[in-house]
Structures are given as structure tokens and as C-alpha cells.
Specification:
Blueprint lengths: L1 H6 L2 E6 L4 E6 L17 H23 L16 H8 L8 H11 L2 E4 L2 E4 L1 H4 L4 H45 L3
Antiparallel strand pairs: 1-2, 3-4
Helix pairs in contact: 2-4
Length: 177
């Protein structure tokens, strides 16, 4: 089975959360004029997939690796609230509707929508490879460094403004009446 899938550019992956095997593309899908894909992953879908993978797969794995308690209890299955996801993404979907994007991704198997919550679908689990994890760690560390530099720049700028205001106040109090 693996050899046959490999011959057509796919690989067999096990999705432990869904307890099933899925055939996933081993690389980018070529564009063929005569082929219409079942779901065309555009920028809106890729943005939602990236945010969901980060929160439902990567961060939970990092928490578990760091000694966090992620149990085998089904209640411990990571999930996202669609409203929270909408707030996180803001207007980054390029005019696409988040509920319809979530529904398309659920139909394709990337996500599971249940009881008003978003769970990882079997295809989302196929992204759990070392290269994706390493890239996510690198981008997360970069984001943390940039956030720290922005905070420090704001503190320094606020300190300079405060010093300038105190200096101006001191000069005006020293001036003769």
C-alpha cells in the first residue's frame, strides 16, 4: 500500500486522534488544468489550518514536552472556540467568512466541528512532522524576541519623553518670574 501511494506522490499517515489511517500528499500538489481539486486551499483556508495546527497540535505537544499535564482522558483533547479563533485571526481571511471556511475544512477532514468547538481532524495530524515543529519553534522564538524588542523600545521611548518633560518642567521652574 505504501509503495503504491508513494508512486502517485502520497504517503500513508496514521492519525492517532481519529484512530485511522489517511493518505496524504507527500509534497505540494501540482496544478493540472483538467483537474478540479475537491477543496482548493487558498490563503483563507491555509491561514485557518496554520492557526488551528499551532493551537491544537503544536502548543499541546510543547506543553506535554515541557512537563505539562496532557492526559489520556478524552476531556483533555485540545479544542478551540470559533469565536476565539475569529478574534485571533482578525481580518486576515481576505473577506472570507470564517464559519464557511471552517465548514469546508471540516468536510475535507482537516478539522472536526463538534458541539460548537473546533478539534483537530485526521488530516491536521498529518502535519506533525519534525520540520514543521522546528519551523514553528523558530518562528515562535522570533516572535517572542520581536515582542521583547518592541516593549523595550516603548519603555525607552517613554523614559526619554518623561526625562524631556521633567527637564522642561525644571527649566521653567528655574526661570525668573
Amino acid at each position: 500500500m505504501r509503495r503504491r501511494l508513494g508512486d502517485v506522490g502520497c504517503e500513508l499517515s496514521y492519525a492517532p486522534g481519529a484512530d485511522r489511517w489517511v493518505a496524504a500528499l507527500a509534497g505540494p500538489m501540482p496544478r493540472l488544468e483538467e483537474h478540479t481539486p475537491v477543496i482548493d486551499l487558498g490563503p483563507a483556508e491555509l491561514t485557518v489550518i496554520a492557526a488551528c495546527w499551532l493551537h491544537l497540535r503544536f502548543l499541546k505537544a510543547e506543553e506535554a514536552a515541557g512537563g505539562g499535564a496532557v492526559g489520556d482522558d478524552p476531556g483533555d483533547t485540545p479544542w478551540l472556540d470559533p469565536d476565539d479563533l475569529g478574534i485571533m485571526l482578525g481580518g486576515r481571511l481576505g473577506g472570507h467568512d470564517l464559519p464557511s471556511t471552517l465548514e469546508r475544512l471540516a468536510q475535507a477532514g482537516y478539522l472536526t466541528l463538534r458541539e460548537g468547538q473546533i478539534f483537530a481532524g485526521p488530516l491536521l495530524e498529518t502535519f506533525d512532522d519534525q520540520a514543521a515543529t522546528d519551523q514553528a519553534k523558530e518562528l515562535l522564538a522570533r516572535n517572542q524576541r520581536l515582542a521583547h524588542l518592541r516593549r523595550r523600545a516603548a519603555e525607552i521611548s517613554a523614559g526619554e519623553r518623561s526625562d524631556a518633560t521633567q527637564s522642561t518642567t525644571q527649566e521653567s521652574s528655574d526661570a525668573p518670574y
